[in-house]
Structure formats: C-alpha cells, structure tokens
Amino acid sequence: MILRTLASTLCTDREVDAATWTSRRLLLKDDRMGFSLHDTLIKAGTETPMWYQNHLEAVYCIAGEGEIETLDDGKRYPIGPGTVYALDRHDRHILRARTELRMVCVFNPPLTGKETHNASGTYPTEDEMLALAS
Ligand code: 9YT
C-alpha cells in the first residue's frame, strides 16, 4: 500500500502554487490508482475561472466559505464545509473564495503533476503535454 502524509508533500514538486491556489498532490498518476487526490487551498478573496475539458473533478470542501458559479446557466451555489461538487459535465465554472477554502479534489483521469492551467482554466491531456514538449 501507499502511505503518504500532507507534510511530506510540502516544499516538494507535489506542492504546486498558482495565483489563486496551492495544491498539495497526495496521489498522482504514477501511484496507479486511476485517480489523483489533492489537498488544495484556495486563497481568500480570489476567484478562479476553470474548465476541465479533459478531466472529471470532484471537490469536497472541508474548511472555509465561498461559492461556485456554473457559467452555462449562471447559477451560484454556496460552498462550505461538508459540501461536495462534482463537475460531471466538464462544467465551465468560477470558484470564489470569501475566506480561504480547503478542498479535497479528485481527478479522473489522474493528473501527472506536470499540468498547468491554460487561459481557459483547463489542464491539457498527457498527449497534449507531450506534443507541447516536443
Ligand atoms: C478546486 C480546484 O479545482 N482548484 C484548482 C486546483 C486543482 N484542484 C488542483 O490541481 O488541485
């Protein structure tokens, strides 16, 4: 089995910083679980537009207060501890953090850990990353 602590990911390449969030990657593709698992902090007072066209993501809030807006219909939903959202339709969305949000995120297919958001807030597929690198 795999046993890993949050502390062991800090200040390593499993801790990824972006303008509005920091993601600590507890499980990635090379762990061969079929999904990746992240403990992510969304910075207070920020909004993050995202559109995971190549991945399904479920996000479980364990601390903080904010809201999510789905952009195709303009609906807004409060986010707080105990709320999960699942982007089962690759929904375009904006996540707004009123206070710092702590989120447990699961991605299918799993992230490799090398992805960065493009301008639409999308993570590329592994093939797209290989094409970009060549
Ligand atoms: C909630 C969310 O999607 N935040 C962006 C970062 C992403 N979850 C990640 O890579 O951990």
Please explain how this structure is put together:
The chain is globular. The protein starts with 5 loop residues before the first helix and ends with a helix. β1 and β2 form a beta hairpin. The protein has helices at 6-9, 126-133; strands at 15-17, 21-27, 36-42, 47-50, 56-63, 66-70, 75-79, 84-86, 93-97, 101-108. The longest helix has 8 residues, at 126-133. The chain is mainly beta. The strands form two sheets. It has a six-stranded antiparallel sheet with strand order 1-2-3-10-5-8, with no helix packed on it. The protein is 9% helix and 41% strand. It is built from two helices and ten strands, in the order αββββββββββα. The structure holds (2~{S})-4-acetamido-2-azanyl-butanoic acid (9YT). (2~{S})-4-acetamido-2-azanyl-butanoic acid is lined by residues 21, 23, 38, 40, 50, 57, 59, 95, 103, 105.
Beta strands, count = 10
N-C termini distance: 35 Å
Write the element-wise H/E pattern from the N-terminal end onward: HEEEEEEEEEEH
Q: Count of DSSP helices?
A: 2
Radius of gyration: 14 Å
* Low-confidence parts: none
Strand content: 35-45%
Oligomer: single chain
Bound molecules: (2~{S})-4-acetamido-2-azanyl-butanoic acid
Structural class of the secondary structure composition? mainly beta
List the strand order in the largest sheet.
1-2-3-10-5-8
Instruction: Characterize the main sheet.
Output: 6 strands, antiparallel
Mean pLDDT reading? 95
Report helical residue fraction.
Answer: under 10%
The coarse silhouette is globular
